[in-house]
Write a structure and sequence with these properties.
The protein is mainly beta. Helices cover 14% and strands 53% of the residues. The longest helix is centred in the first third of the chain and has 25 residues, at 24-48.
């Protein structure tokens, strides 16, 4: 089998996965995109397109117009942290300052992320990204409830996979220096969080009516998940042999869900805990970054992205309002914010021409708004208008498969 036919089959498989869960109209557009990409396959293999990265310029999480060399594998990863010792710009302290629903170690963050990107042709690559993290959310004891066995972390998994195609680049240049290049990325997004809950020993229905449960009964915030797709165009412009600028524009559509439920035997009380929230969002984002190779082994990247939710449709249902829910379960916690400003920076050290380590940080004006749509739920929705960020340690390597 030729490299062109192998690449074509792999591309079709990835595009099929991306479109599998989305609308028929989007499938049509993705099919047309796949055909355009496959046209570029014949152009790429004829030697007219270089479309790989300059030597030593591995993907850093900031979008650019490059793809890896053909048959080259790029692996990057990071370890992310926020705690009482490593409180990035005092963000954890600020989260707790005006929030009566949450306390303790709320705001702590611990996670790992990774990306694998593989160049199947000089102008075409496929990628897979995954992140798993724990966001601490410790409930303050509400006056209306006695709780035990309370969960303290939102355990979340993020996944994204897709294709990146370089559709334009300037005349071929020495790979030791950057060149002008533009790419189109098409990706599927899937995020989910485990159920978060506690056991109720006692609930005050009103000042004169108290119900006790023996044994305690469990309630959960559940159905926390979202999926969707994104399309992004990125342009890289060389400013010098050591400096490049990047700009990008993307559009995303997502469907998110969350809800609350309980195991309480009383139908009247259980109905009050039964809620569902279904959220559809459309958003645009635009960003820019600057990458400077201070020395050949010491690159630094600074980036900014603006996220704007342009359309939001929320369907909220509740079976009964006979019982007043505790504040951390109420629908009015869902945010109405529609914008997010994201700043990110990193500095890396290339140990060898194929291995690097580094450090960085990320700051968001409205927590994970536009990044994790299902975080707009009764528990974490109240944090969506609070600035948040984390520090990270990074590593990466490049491998030639053939």
């Amino acid at each position: 089998m030729t490299s062109e036919s192998a690449a074509s089959k792999l591309l079709c498989s990835v595009v099929h996965k991306i479109t599998r869960h989305h609308t028929a109209g989007f499938k049509t557009h993705a099919s047309q995109l796949a055909r355009l990409m496959l046209i570029s396959v014949s152009i790429s293999t004829s030697g007219l397109v270089l479309a790989d990265r300059p030597h030593g310029w591995i993907s850093t999480g900031s979008p650019d117009g490059y793809t890896p060399d053909q048959w080259e594998l790029e692996i990057t990863g990071s370890m992310m942290r926020v705690n009482d010792t490593l409180d990035f710009m005092n963000i954890r302290r600020d989260i707790l300052s005006d929030n009566t629903r949450l306390g303790g170690q709320t705001g702590d963050f611990k996670g790992f992320s990774g990306e694998v990107q593989f160049g199947i042709l000089p102008s075409l690559s496929v990628f897979y990204r995954q992140q798993e993290h724990d966001l601490t959310a410790e409930l303050s004891q509400p006056a209306s409830l006695d709780l035990e066995s309370v969960d303290s972390k939102l355990r979340t998994k993020r996944e994204s996979y897709g294709v990146e195609w370089v559709f334009y680049e300037a005349a071929t240049k020495d790979k030791s220096s950057p060149w002008r290049s533009a790419s189109l990325e098409l990706a599927s997004l899937e995020n989910s969080s485990e159920d978060f809950g506690a056991s109720i020993q006692r609930i005050s229905l009103n000042p004169t009516s108290v119900v006790e449960f023996r044994p305690p009964q469990r309630f959960t915030i559940n159905r926390m998940a979202d999926d969707g797709w994104t399309a992004r165009v990125a342009l890289t412009q060389a400013l010098s042999t050591h400096i490049t600028s990047n700009a990008w524009l993307s559009h995303s559509r997502t469907d998110a869900s969350s809800g609350t439920s309980s195991e309480i035997p009383s139908r009247a009380i259980a109905a009050a805990f039964a809620q569902t929230f279904d959220l559809k969002e459309k958003q645009w984002s635009a960003g820019a970054s600057l990458r400077w190779n201070i020395t050949p082994r010491l690159p630094m990247t600074l980036s900014y992205e603006f996220i704007k939710i342009t359309d939001r449709e929320l369907i909220a249902t509740r079976e009964s309002a006979a019982v007043t829910l505790p504040s951390f379960l109420r629908a009015d916690n869902l945010t109405t914010e529609t914008t997010n400003h994201v700043l990110q920076g990193s500095i890396d050290w290339w140990i060898t021409p194929r291995i690097f380590v580094g450090a960085g940080g990320k700051l968001m004006s409205n927590q994970f708004l536009g990044i994790l749509p299902h975080y707009n739920n009764p528990l974490s929705g109240s944090l969506s208008d609070v600035a948040y960020g984390f520090a990270e340690l990074r590593f990466g390597m490049k491998l030639s498969v053939f």
